[in-house]
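Review this chain:
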Amino acid sequence: FAVEPATGVLTASGTAPVGGVPADLVVNPAGRFLFVGSFTLNQISVFAIDSVTGALTEAAGSPFPTGVSDISAAPIQLSMDPAGRFLYAAVNFNIVGFSVDPGTGALTPVPGSPFLFATVPSSLAVGGSGSFLFVTDLNALTLTTLRIDAATGGLSATAATAPTGAVPSDVTTDPGGNFVLVANSAGNSVSVFRVDANGALS
């Protein structure tokens, strides 16, 4: 859709086919590329966004497989770091990570991807600083901090884990990266956590 700046009125500007069932999408910070996770085909499609019309053109090599071989694997949620260098997706019992080509939007798995998660990652969000990835666990009802390698985009565990409410279904961070907020869909509540410089939650 095109957005009228004065009124916010939306005008349809076209559609683009996506294989399978689109589960989540994210636009890179520069507004040049759209990334779409397919729930049924276990892949991520990449589209270049026309800066004038908003039209979508699928990038060369798209769609990109997640690298998780489980037959039921599905990228249910995506998140990108603030610089647009790395893209992450929750896929069944794994977190997958990709480096993003700034010119084409093409995806390349980061070293170590896919990363096995404890149980079922239900949502994820990169913190405002880009140093941490916050992941909710649907089974354990927890929020966990993973450290992002600034050079490679690889993920490593930290000791930071905190309980959430019932069925944590979505997570986001404030722009400064000081707070993480979790929507608890079965608890009718939002959990708020402060993040320190080491990724610890309180």
